[in-house]
Amino acid sequence: MGKRNKTVLVEHLSDEISDLEDRVKIYKKANERYERIRKVKIFGNFLRLVLPYIACIGLAFGASYGIGGDIPFYPQDVLKVNHHVEEFDNRGKFNSESEFREAFADSDSNAEYFTKWELKADNRYYRFRKAYKFKSTEVSLDALRNAVANNTDLDSIIGNPFNSKMEIKDSLTEEDLANDGYMTVTYKYQDEKDFIVAPEETASNIGRGVIFILISGLNMLVYSFFSDFSTYDYFKEKDEINRYYVPNDLSYLEKELEEKKLVYANTSEKEQLISNGK
Prior knowledge:
- Helices cover 51% and strands 23% of the residues.
- It has two domains: 123 residues; 123 residues, no CATH class.
- The protein has seven helices and seven strands, in the order αβββββααβαβααα.
């Protein structure tokens, strides 16, 4: 074979190798896309399989939670703890109430602090009103009693107020002028050590039973809505997807590419030897 023919062959092999490499890249990208689509479709079919059960189980747990885990329409013994509310201020007001009720998260306690009125250069009176919210677990009752008794700024006991604003008046009564400031506290807490066991109230029991019936009925509606899913064959659908999204077979292209690269290397080596006069 002449030198010119070998040069043409080398160039031809180079073009074929470049074409095969491009085809392999295209097929690999297509295979990656097919694989992503296949996985998404299989996952979607899996959700279709389990969704009715998830929905029904969730509603069943909701029904159980709605009645507190009790048997519907059957009176239960209920644990009730003593709930206290104390109201007091720095002018001697005091009121205390208590009631046995079912335990629940502490309600917000609140307090207000009005600073003393001050006369400014514009001949108007100014004071600040601060409002606080807090849990009984965050601030002790004794600390608040001492603060109110000693007219201590509540910021140091409770923390920053959730609301603060300035009040302005053109004139005041003698009583308002005489007051050093005003504090009032409403403190709510429950004493879990002070409790009783009492029969559940009829209205409460009926209410829980009605909740159970409503959620159970909704559960049945959901099951009926998804009833066609019971005939759904997940594994058959999965096999169909796997058969449809078959990846391109690259083995023959890669084998052909390797063979042409080998021929190209041998031909190039021979041509180099000839050009060197060996």
